[in-house]
Amino acid sequence: xxxxxxxxxxxxxxxxxxxxxxxxxxxxxxxxxxxxxxxxxxxxxxxxxxxxxxxxxxxxxxxxxxxxxxxxxxxxxxxxxxxxxxxxxxxxxxxxxxxxxxxxxxxxxxxxxxxxxxxxxxxxxxxxxxxxxxxxxxxxxxxxxxxxxxxxxxxxxxxxxxxxxxxxxxxxxxxxxxxxxxxxxxxxxxxxxxxxxxxxxxxxxxxxxxxx
Length: 212
What we know:
By secondary structure, this protein is α/β, with parallel strands linked by helices. The chain has a domain at 6-136 and 201-206: Alpha/Beta hydrolase fold, catalytic domain (Rossmann fold), CATH 3.40.50.1820. It is built from four helices and seven strands, in the order ββββαβαβαβα. It starts with 12 loop residues before the first strand and ends in a 49-residue tail after the last helix.
């Protein structure tokens, strides 16, 4: 299959609030749209996209705002906005009859997309390692995780990791006074290698994914 299809030359997709989303669009045929987990970019789907595009599918994946090569506006990390970002991807690429594949936090974004935008563009969904209906323990979710554990993770891991990435006002490494890109810390996590020659194209997960 020729991966240098018209879909392979991409420009950022613009969300309703002006955020540019990097995406990759490989192959042709029935569309499969991949939504990654928190902290992972679209690169994480490279192996699945390669196999399915060679099998005759159009494979689309995008970097969530604040991830990978997408813009980082420092806002919009609630599930409503993230679902609207997914809608922008489907609408901008005129995707119809799609299979949406989500992993971890991506499953919540898919469910919220369906509750906000309907299923007119979607034929089926695949939810892997789901975070639905929510992660936190609540009266109506008694088997969830103690919210105190999420707060401890935010305080002791996420904030500590990001502290070293925020430059002091006027320091080098970016616009004076600007906070460094809100990229999740992945220290010690193996990187997914790029597929050579195939280039073509915090609390959100704890929010209830099925509410409108």
